Amino acid sequence: MNQPTNIAPASGKLGVLMPGMGAVSTTVIAGVEAIKAGIGAPIGSLTQMGTIRLGKRTDGRSPLIKDFVPLAGLDDLVFGGWDVFPDDAYESAIHAGVLPKDQLDQIKDKLQTVKPMPAVFDRNYVKRLEGSNVKSMKSKWDAVLEVRDDIKRFKADNGCERLVMIWCGSTEIYMAPHEVHNTIESLEKAIKENHQAIPPSMIYAYAALQECVPFLNGAPNLTVDVPAMVELAKQQGVCLGGKDFKTGQTLMKTLLAPGLKARMLGVRGWFSTNILGNRDGEVLDDPESFKTKEVSKLDVLEYILQPEPTTKCASTTIRRAVTKKRVGTISTSSAGWACRCRSRSIFSAAIRFWPRRWCST
User: Fold this and answer.
1) Which residue blocks in 39-137 are alpha helix, DSSP H?
2) Residue 121 dihedral angles phi and psi, to the nearest 5°
3) Which pLDDT value is given to residue 251?
4) 13-241, superfamily in CATH?
C-alpha cells in the first residue's frame, strides 16, 4: 500500500527564480503585481481561479483550490532571475510590449526592483541572441558554482523560506541525449570538462537541484529529460517538471487530438503555424533552435494517437508540418493563432477544425 506523503505547510516567502527575464517572465511578474495591487484578475490561473469538488455534485461543495490546498499566497512570492540583458522587469516588459504601458506604469515601482543577475550564456547553444549581462566564467563548473552562490544570496537577501526555479529562457539548439547524461557522476565529469553536451539550461538545473530547489522547464530543451537529472532530483528529494509551456498550437493539439482518438477518427494530416514574436522569434529564426521546438510539437501527436493502426487511416504515417511565421512584437490585445487538422470519419467526410482565439487584457 502506498504510504501517505507528508507535505510541509507553505510558510514564509517563496522565491521564484527565472533564468530568462523576457516577455514570459515579466508578464508573469507584472500579472502577479497587478493582482496584488487590485488592478488585475488571475485569468487563466488554475490555483487562483480553479475549484475542486468535494463530495457529491449535489452537495455544492467546490472551494477554490488556493483555499483547499496549502499553497503560497501571491503576497508571499518574491521574484528574481538571470538575463543576458541588464534591463529590469519594467524595462523588459516595456520592450516586450505584451502588456499596455499604462498598466505597467501603475506597478512600475514594483517591477523596477526586479533586476536580473548576470546570466550563464553560450552563443553556441542560442545563436541569434547576444547580450552584455553575462557571467565571465572560466568553465562550466565555475558557472555552476556562481549560480549556486546566486541562489544562496537571493534566498538570504530576500528572507525566503523556499525557492523554485522556472526556466523561461530561450529555446536552445536541438540536442539528443548523450552518454554523459546517464549518471550523476558522468554528468558532473562532463560539466568539469566543458563537454559540448552540457548547455546553459543544464547548468541552471544542476545548480538548482544541488541547492534542493525544484526545477521546472518552460522550454522544449533537453535539460532535465535525462537519467542523471532524474536521479539527482530523487537523491535531493525535490521535483522536476515541465517540457515547454505549450500555450499556443500545442495546446490545441492536446485538446483536439484526444477527442479525435476517443471517437476513433483517423487523422490524415495536421498542419500548424508557430507565430513568433519578441526575442523568441529572433532565437527561433535559427534552424537549430527551431528544430527543438518542432520536434516537441510533433512528438505530442505521436504520443496521443498511439497505437498507429487504431487512429491513423490505413496505418499510414500522418502528414505533419510545423511552420513558422515571424512577426514583430506580440501583444495580448491583438494576438491570435489558428491551426488546422484534417481528419476522416467512417463516412470519408473531411473534418476541418479552424479554432481561433483572441486574447484581450
Assistant:
1) 46-49, 65-68, 89-96, 101-106, 108-112
2) -145, 140
3) 82
4) NAD(P)-binding Rossmann-like Domain (3.40.50.720)
Q: Where are the beta strands (DSSP E) in the chain?
A: 13-19, 77-83, 117-118, 160-167, 215-217, 240-241, 266-276, 319-326, 336-344, 350-353, 356-358
> Distance between CA atoms of 190 and 184, rounded to whole angstroms?
10
Mean pLDDT of 107-113: 97
Cell of 110: 514594483
pLDDT of residue 203: 98
Q: Which CATH number applies to 249-358?
A: 3.30.360.10
Q: Number of H helices and number of E strands within the chain?
A: 14, 11
Give the number of other CB atoms < 10 A from CB of residue 92: 24
Residues 6+ apart with CB under 8 A from 332: 27, 98, 99, 359, 360, 361
Checking DSSP bridges between strand 350-353 and strand 336-344, what pairing results, if any?
antiparallel
Q: What is d(CA 89, CA 22) in angstroms, rounded to the nearest whole number?
A: 8
* pLDDT tens by residue, 128-172: 778 899 998 889 999 999 999 999 999 999 999 999 999 999 888
Quick check: 125 and 172 in contact, CB under 8 A?
A: yes
Average pLDDT rounded to a whole number, residues 296-306: 76
Q: How far, in whole angstroms, is CA 82 from its chain's centroid?
A: 15
Residue 98 burial (CB count, 10 A): 25
What integer pLDDT is reported at residue 280 of this predicted model? 63
Report pTM: 0.81
Taking residues 200-209, what's their average pLDDT?
Answer: 97
By DSSP bridging, strand 336-344 and strand 117-118 are: unpaired
Least-confidence region, from 97-111, 131-145, 198-212, 270-284? 270-284
Domain ranges of the chain: 13-241, 249-358
**Predicted pLDDT at 186:** 97
Give the other-Cβ count within 10 Å of 228's Cβ: 22
